[in-house]
Amino acid sequence: MSKDPNRPNIVLILADNLGWGELGCYGGGALRGASTPRIDNFATEGLLLHNFNVESDCVPTRSALMTGRHPIRTGCLQSVPAGFPQGLTLWEKTLPECLREEGYATAHHGKWHLGDIPGRYPSDRGFDEWFGIPRTTDESQFTSAIGFDAEVAELPYIMQGTAGQPSTEVCVYDLEKRRLIDEMLVEKSKNWLSRKASAKAPFFLYHPLVHLHFPTLPHPDFERSTGNGEFADSMVEMDFRVGQLLDHIDDIGVRENTVVIFASDNGPEFRPPYRGTAGPWSGTYHTAMEGSLRVPFIIRWPGKVPQNVTSNEMVHITDIFTTAIAIAGATKPKDRPIDGIDQVRFFQSPTVEKSEREGFLFYLKDDLRAIKWRHWKLHLIWEPKVNQSSGKLESPYLFNTLRDPKEEGDILAYNTWVLQPMMKLRAAFQKSLAEDPARIKPMT
Fold first, then answer.
1. Would you tell me which CATH number, out of the four given (3.30.230.10, 3.40.50.1820, 3.40.50.300, 3.30.1120.10), belongs to the domain 359-440?
2. What are the catalytic residues?
């Protein structure tokens, strides 16, 4: 394990479709029928962000995290079925690839969703080893679906692999394994962390949970534990699994030199009965509403990040790529535009420093849907709920997210000055996009 403060270990835990309003420390917890004491306590040990932003879907967010680049650059625009080209091209350089160059050991245990063919599995993209699912968890319903035909549709598998070797199938991913998988993933991560604790090299563990993605089904040990249904039971299990990882970090003696980040990849699910909540924000994932963009984020870095602090400063998922590289003393790619901003200074002094991010453009697939700048939000296409788009707006809608968190009252007519900085932001990004080597000459 690394004891060098200039090369801290990094553990990144990513929940799946955990809405802003679910956890107790974000105003949910018991109000949602499921207390989350472990994550709530973890939030008091570091910095909690209220304005941490992600992309629209599982694949776009994970690609942005792994590359520091918006998915409109990388082509990772949406989740697609098995058997279709998907994931990161070999030209994109990933976070674990950058960290490995600095001597970090790397592991991935969980949901990948950035490539499901040889050459694009996690162990091909910078991770020393991996265990989990290559795509998404709703595929666990396949084998019990009426009329499912394995001759025309691919079976979903839990897989594993090590760098330099082909990834292999472990078992079919069905509804039984859906209930067990987060337990399996935690055991894999605990085992790996124990092995790395006796080594001298620093480590990077990426642990993307399966909870709370639909079907949101709890482990049998947690079934009926809340009396409030399977979603609440799954929330309690997720909190417990995060606690297991935090306890193990303590048990192996690496807490003081380990940065732990907990976040979510997307806003809440919109499909009943697994529908989640974004708290004070409107919308779910697959929209450009704040409920899609804003998700939980907590960082603990003993002695570096102050305890029990919250902030409404803006941070984006691409920033985690750049920030993790800075924490590790690694080098980010210089041959392509990187959208992520180094937030180390802000994270270390959140009551004094401001985030260096003032805004970003939000695309949903190929469409520029919205622009965020400071506390202002401009919608170019209006879709407050999934599949309820009114199309491109001749006169865009403008909201102030401080005064109008649910984005209910358009105030563009009284604040047209805001278009100036927003259009400058758009022009600069689109110029960069036009000059991006990955788009001028796509790399395989």
1. 3.30.1120.10
2. 58, 113
